[in-house]
Predict the structure.
Amino acid sequence: MSSPLYKAIFGLGLAAFALLFVVGIVQSLLRSGRVPSLVLDGFREVREAEQAGDWALASILRRKSAVVEAHAGSLARAAQAAVRAGRPELEIEALRPYLALAPRAADQRARLAQRLYEAGEVDEALWQLERAVRSGRSSRSGGSSGEDLQKLSVLVSLLEAEGHYERALPYHDQMAAQQPGSHALLARAGAAHAEHGDPARAIAHLRSALALDPAHAADHYWLARALARRGDAMPEAMGALDRALEIEPGLEAARALRAELAKPGAG
């Protein structure tokens, strides 16, 4: 084999390897939210056009992808500059179009939600944070991360602070499902359902919480609330209230509920 031909074949092989390596890096960065999703979508379009032999279309798509990436990068830098300058309104102006180009960038969307909430734009802030939670979950096929759980916790707190208790219930369930060994998350989800949601789901969460740690009077109280709402387990509800008062005799909510359930005709 002649030296020039050997060099050409070697060069093509090296280029192919480099291309595969770059694709792997881009996909990894995309999963972390650091590369706009439209860039990778554009890369797929280029590859499909090349596989179909449409080199003219591939060239056009390659240029479009480069423009998208450059524009998204400029917007990201503008947002960072706004942070350094202490101008949250300019950060919002940069992040909104950035997220149009990078809709799966969960961390940046959560940042936008924070800024919007601080600016009093509550409805959009909650909507953006819900999208951030969904984006973070869908981009991780291997499960959730601590950052996902933190976003969920913030979202639940904000929804409840704004009085959207029922809207927060599915996110309580998600947190409990992500951390089934967490007494705090199970108890929090159970209490939320006991007051605003499904009594059966509340009972399941609270029994799981009490199996992990039975020494919390509040958990027994909320279990009693859920059992009373269900309406067919009054003796068990009274027993849960007795247990709550054994642990914390001064728990007035438990004492009041017990007195109410002891009335003739209650339940």
Notes: The two ends are 92 Å apart (CA to CA). The CA atoms of residues 19 and 79 lie 31 Å apart. The longest helix spans residues 55-85.
